[in-house]
Amino acid sequence: MHIFMYSDQVIEENLQMDLKLIEVATSKVGSVGKIKVGYIPSAGDRERKYYNDKVNYYQKYGISHFMFFDLDEEYDEGFLNDLMDCTIIHLSGGTPVVLNRHVMNRSFGANLEAYLLDGGIVVGVSAGAIQLTRSIGLYLAYMFGFDYEREQ
Questions:
Q1: 126 CB contacts (<8 Å, ≥6 apart)?
Q2: pLDDT per residue over 99-152, tens digit each?
Q3: What phi, psi does 122 have (nearest 5°)?
Q4: Measured between alpha carbons, how far is 76 from 106 in angstroms, rounded to an integer?
Q5: CA-CA distance, 88 to 75, in Å (whole number)?
Q6: Are 72 and 104 in contact (CB under 8 A)?
Q7: Taking the CB of residue 90, how many other CB atoms lie within 10 A of it?
Q8: N or C: which end of the chain has fewer CB within 10 A?
Q9: Could you give the CA distance from residue 109 to residue 21 in angstroms, rounded to a whole number?
Q10: Angle, in degrees to the nearest 10, between helices 96-105 and 137-144
Q11: What's the predicted TM-score (pTM) here?
C-alpha cells in the first residue's frame, strides 16, 4: 500500500515526491513504460481539461498509459476492473465535499480500500488527499467554522 498526498502537485518543491512515486510505481510493474494512471476527477470533466493537464504532467516522467474514470455524470461501472488494474489511481483536486459525495454515492471507498490493501498506489491531490483521511471534517471546520462538525 502506497499513498502519496499532495496539497498542490505541480510545484517545483514536489519533485522529490514525484520521483519517489515513479520509483515505487516502476518497481511494481518493471518499467516506466508499463505504468498506467487511472484519473478520477473530483467533479465532471467532460471537456477533459483537468484530465489532459494531468496526462501532460505525468508524461514528463515518461508515463504514457492513462484512463479517465468519472464517479459523477459519466460513471460507468463496467470500467471499474480496468481502473483497479491501474498502477496508480489519481484522485484529483477540487472541492472535497463534492468528491466525497461521489465516493459515497458510488460506494467507491470499499473499492479504493481493496485496491490499496492489494498493494495499489494512490495519489491524492488537495481534495483527493482529503478523501484519504479519516473524514473531511477538518476541511469543513476550516471552511465553515470549528463548531460546524459539532452541529452536524
A1: 6, 7, 8, 92, 93, 94, 96
A2: 989 998 999 999 999 999 999 999 999 888 878 877 766 666 656 665 544 444
A3: -120, 130
A4: 10
A5: 19
A6: no
A7: 24
A8: C
A9: 22
A10: 140
A11: 0.89
Q: pLDDT, tens digit, for every residue of 34-91?
A: 999 999 999 989 999 999 999 999 999 999 999 999 999 999 999 999 999 999 999 9
DSSP string, the chain: -EEEEESSTTSGGGHHHHHHHHHHHHHHHSSGGG-EEEEE-SS--TT-HHHHHHHHHHHTTT--EEEE--SSTT--GGGHHHHHT-SEEEE--S-HHHHHHHHHHTTHHHHHHHHHHTT-EEEEETHHHHHTSS-SHHHHHHHH-TTHHHH-
For residue 98, give the nearest of 71, 76, 68 by alpha carbon.
Answer: 71
Q: What phi-psi label fits residue 97: left (phi over 0), alpha (psi between -120 and 50 degrees) or beta?
A: alpha
Instruction: Kindly tell me the burial class for residue 60, based on how many C-beta atoms sit within 10 Å of its own C-beta (0-12, 13-18, 19 or more).
Output: exposed
Question: Residue 14 corresponds to which cell in the numbers above?
Answer: 514536489
Best CA proximity match to 51, nearest among 64, 32, 38, 60: 38
